[in-house]
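Translate sequence into structure tokens.
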Amino acid sequence: MATRVIPPRILKKVRYNTTTKPLNYDQPTLTTVIAPPSIFEKPPSSAVDHAPSSAALNLEDPARLFSSVSTARLLRSSAVLHATAVGPMVDLGMWVMKSKLFQTGVLKDLVMSTTRKTFYEHFCAGEDAADAGRSIRALNDAGLRGMLVYGVEDAHDNDGCDRNLKGFLHTVDVSKSLPLNSVSFVIVKITAICPMALLERLSDLLRWQEKDPSFVLPWKQDSLPIFAESSPLYHTQKRPEPLTPEEESDLELANQRLLELCQKCVEANIPLLVDAEHTTVQPAIDYFTYSSSIMHNKDNNPIVFGTIQTYLKDAKERLLLATKAADKMGVPMGFKLVRGAYMSTESKLAESFGYASPIHNTIQDTHNCFNDCSSFMLEKIANGPGSVVLATHNIESGQLAAAKAHEVGIGKVNHKLEFAQLYGMSEALSFGLSNAGFQVSKYMPFGPVDMVMPYLLRRAEENRGLLAASGFDRQLMRKELGRRLKAAVF
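Result follows.
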């Protein structure tokens, strides 16, 4: 769930995903954040039972779906979703936030204030740890969980990487201070703790080794298969030079940052989920993810989770190869499945090299790939080690996965399966899945508005189609608001 531009050089239940006893339940806590009244309202005793006897997914009853959501939040959510569904309005908002005219003085303050009270508060968990804690608690009261995301973007030097690492480490501390059943994952972006230029170099070297197995990479640690036969290798046109001593030093620093973060997550027994990026740097990200998984995922307790973007033609093949290799090594793997977020940039980059896009040719092919990968992972975790996060806003995929989970025996709340949606989006699906007895998380970025602004911009760019297609949620919200208004008047 992440974003970047093409690099210039180439143009409530158990919180932890573990089937064994937790590593350490007796964690010291930080000072507890006292939450003020929230726009989420705690449901009355007659409201939703989050552990029904049936796994049926009911998305037709807005009163039940939104029973835990205050009218104030429902009104704001409906207004924001209607606004983001209007293409020209999204374009105008993006232009305003990017324009140099609005980067200083009174205009900047006005833009920031408007953004904070609208899109920021809708899509983000807050400006600091205290705000994030309140948002998580409110979400938990509504029967959902949170994936905490420190909202930084790419880093380009070691100083930036070190600053970002402190933010990720603090996020783990914040998670430990919150209710036991409220945080499902801490999210990390490898692009924020390893310089982008180095990730590009590592990806080039890994691709060349895939082309030429005799090509030696002395720095390479044990990993799982990163490429499949159908994986795109066109990014690396010629044999890359070995890493320089300085680059090797930077690589060691990046390894140490990820190791420190993984060890903190192991100690806290909070899974670390690695976000995916564009194919230019994804090989290096997979390398970091898999080498860390081999080191830290033990005893059917995945701590490090990778991400598979199923809009890529090689997604299913890579998933099969990685899980097969992990099984052979005795490493329990956790994967998040998403559709993907870089369609236009991936297609343009492939075209610039004279190759077909690595993205599926049709949206239905992408849907089929996501559903196939979901079915495979559900069958796998029902009969063996591993865990899966199904990150989808698609109603049909949610229904199919819920039915499949029930079929294979994980239809009730199960710590091996988590559904996920972005904070502020697909609320009906989130509550519907939770009401059906599944664990559901919302992807919740937090940080100062100016720091998280790039996140908001790319959310608008990446999810333009998704925002425009949010009619299902908007329709249900209108129905529920109408019902509440009628009840209040009559």
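Note: DSSP finds 18 helices and eight strands in the chain.
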